Amino acid sequence: MTSTVLDPTLDLTLERVIRASPSSVWRAWTDPELLARWWVPAPMQTRVDRLDVRPGGGFVTSMREEAGEYVPHTDGIFLVVESEKRLVFTNVIDSSWRPAQPEPVSMTAEIIFGEHAEGTAYRAIVRHRDPVARNLHQDLGFLDGWGSVTAALADLVEAGSAT
């Protein structure tokens, strides 16, 4: 079941056409080696510590600057997995299935991979608990951050690296 009702006081969205097949975009999301190449804004680097793409499976990444130490980045679980169509994950429950208080903001993200004449209609919907959390996420640079990693994802799959 897809929840398409958006609340502009609680939700942030990003939409883009990616000129690659939904299966290529899906693979870039679900293959740890590919996810590591685009998941955080450059020049940061990602290490995928756990990517168990199934409902209840863990989603854990770390990030670092240049040659620095890796620090925690994402620790959550997948809630919905519909192959090549939709991924839903949250950081409100950590990969050990414990309640979490993620910093700087808790969220549930829904990634939709739709058919498009030019490739994939890609849509990210990020839902928040309250307007304060939504506004904080926006003020922290949601559009720049999620926009840059989505551009990196598009560059990767449009170059044929995820076929």
User: In percent terms, what proportion of residues is strand?
Assistant: 25-35%
Alpha carbon gyration radius: 15 Å
From the N-terminal CA to the C-terminal CA, the straight-line distance is: 28 Å
> How would a crystallographer describe the biggest sheet?
7 strands, antiparallel
What count of helical segments does DSSP give? 4
Q: In order across it, which strands form the biggest sheet?
A: 1-7-6-5-4-3-2
Mean pLDDT: 95
Topology:
Layout lengths: L10 E8 L3 H9 L1 H4 L9 E7 L6 E7 L6 E12 L3 E5 L17 E9 L2 E9 L3 H9 L2 H17 L5
How would you describe this protein?
With 163 residues, the protein is of the alpha+beta class. It has four helices and seven strands. It has helices spanning 22-30, 32-35, 131-139, 142-158, and strands spanning 11-18, 45-51, 58-64, 71-82, 86-90, 108-116, 119-127. It has a seven-stranded antiparallel β-sheet. It is globular. The two termini are 28 Å apart.
Key terms:
163 residues, seven-stranded antiparallel β-sheet
Could you give a quick summary of the protein structure above?
This protein is of the alpha+beta class.
